[in-house]
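S.,

As promised, the uridine-5'-diphosphate run. Input:
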Amino acid sequence: MKNRLFTVIPCYNEEEVLSETARRLRKKYTALMQSGQIAKDSRIAFVNDGSSDRTWQIICDLHAQDPVFTGIDLSRNRGHQNALIAGLLTVKAHADMVISMDADLQDDIDAMDEMIEKYHEGCDIVYGVRNSRKKDSFFKRTTAEAFYRLMNRLGAKTVFNHADYRLMSRRALDGLAQFREVNLFLRGLVPMIGYRTDTVLYERHERFAGESKYPLKKMLSFAFEGITSLSTKPIRMISALGFLLFFISILMSIIFIVEFFLGQTVSGWASLIVSIWAIGGLLMLAIGVVGEYIGKIYMEVKDRPRFLIARFLEEEDEHEE
Ligand code: UDP
Ligand code: MG
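Predicted complex:
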């Protein structure tokens, strides 16, 4: 069988949206199965990322009612990116293609048709790309844009306006599994896999219900994680800055020596204090950035597991049979 599709959906406290997401996906699956685009034993896999509400209960109920729904329960909350990779790597052995999407119905389910078409044409990775960000708040739109510009400048290439809504073939997932890093930023990693890729445009909707699980603080740390886990350019920029400052200080000393012999006194301690503070600040910043990378190395060297799985409903069924 070559068309078995798994849709992986990380869920963190999504009890308000889950049944509606399940209903709409079930409808889409029925249509896709009827037209022969996907295999009859395809699955919709919800990943419960340590929710504290009824999310896991709802997933279990869905699974009991309809075998198209399955669930993966993580041992605790590990964050969106880890929940996503946990889902992808867990279903990999069962699927021919996997689509990842958010639970909140922001990703347009109808874009799946085109993704699957492109898979049948031989694509290994199909990115869902938003055609506009009109529905996002002005703040989210401008900060996100600035962030992706900065990322690309710093050499961490990502697909513009692509969140984690994408299709990947089994082969691409096998590739992804070989990227062992703990500091995970999937949007930057997936383009490194290669193979034949394409994009599908879709309209991004508003969150169906509930609130965003990405408050500003989490968004900033996500952005920081993205830059430092994909690029070492900030370290190089610090070296360049240090070199520049050193060069300026040599120029200044030459000027002062000349002035000394010309009999002009060097006056004003204000400029002195300012430069001491400026350079002190820059030094601290520089140490901070370097420290950030050392911290990253520390975490990678430990090689801790990125996730632990408490239950996978699909496999439990197979054991029972
Ligand atoms: N999510 C998760 N673990 C977390 C935070 C979020 O699995 O710790 C999931 C969440 O349930 C949703 C997806 O990640 O399916 C995207 O989160 P959200 O929609 O809140 O982010 P936004 O769209 O506001 O950026
Ligand atoms: Mg969302």
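The pocket of magnesium ion (ligand 2) is lined by residues 102, 104, 106, 207, 212 (CB under 6 Å). The chain has two domains: 5-213+305-320, 233-302.

- D.
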